[in-house]
UniProtKB/TrEMBL annotation:
<dbReference type="InterPro" id="IPR031107">
    <property type="entry name" value="Small_HSP"/>
</dbReference>
<feature type="domain" description="SHSP">
    <location>
        <begin position="22"/>
        <end position="136"/>
    </location>
</feature>
<dbReference type="Pfam" id="PF00011">
    <property type="entry name" value="HSP20"/>
</dbReference>
<dbReference type="InterPro" id="IPR008978">
    <property type="entry name" value="HSP20-like_chaperone"/>
</dbReference>
<dbReference type="InterPro" id="IPR002068">
    <property type="entry name" value="A-crystallin/Hsp20_dom"/>
</dbReference>
<protein>
    <submittedName>
        <fullName>Hsp20/alpha crystallin family protein</fullName>
    </submittedName>
</protein>
<feature type="region of interest" description="Disordered">
    <location>
        <begin position="123"/>
        <end position="153"/>
    </location>
</feature>
<comment type="similarity">
    <text>Belongs to the small heat shock protein (HSP20) family.</text>
</comment>
């Protein structure tokens, strides 16, 4: 079988877009992100990537997705065309403080990695009991060494 390439400049342009991406479409790990209720849902296209080769981590509200796609050539084969990107790919996303990074979940199905980041629970108001000052015991002092009751909120 012989493969004929007719336009080397077009092929070079396509390879450049796939390797470095464009402003409209980043290379190698396209992403969709949306809100579903209060949760943030992220979809990463990772066709041909084994879920065991995906590393997902979060540190200081920075979510890192790292994946590796093996090269296309089998041992002893003559590679004719290599247009699909391969190697190690990563994306960094800065998450808002209103998201709960302790409860992130992820699943990979049909070459799509879905990451769900739930909203953080809002802090609930806390009542603080105010104690009364110690009563004057007639000595003209502040009532000795008695202390005001402490809050047990």
């Amino acid at each position: 079988m012989t493969l004929v390439r007719t336009d080397p400049l077009r092929d070079l342009g396509r390879l450049t877009e796939q390797t470095f991406g464009t402003l409209a479409r980043p290379a190698a790990m396209p992403l969709d992100a949306y809100r579903s209720g209060e949760d943030l849902v992220l979809h990463f296209d990772l066709p041909g990537v084994d879920p065991a080769a995906v590393d997902l981590s979060v540190e200081r509200n920075v979510l890192t997705v790292r994946a590796e796609r093996p090269g296309p050539a089998a041992e002893g084969a003559d590679l004719l065309v290599a247009e699909r990107p391969h190697g190690v790919f990563s994306r960094l996303l800065i998450l808002d403080d209103t998201l709960d990074t302790e409860r992130i979940s992820a699943r990979c199905e049909a070459g799509v990695l879905t990451v769900t980041v739930p909203a953080a629970e809002e802090p609930k108001p806390r009542r603080i009991r105010v104690g009364r000052a110690a009563a004057d015991d007639g000595t003209g002092g502040t009532g000795g060494s008695r202390e005001a009751p402490r809050s047990t909120a």
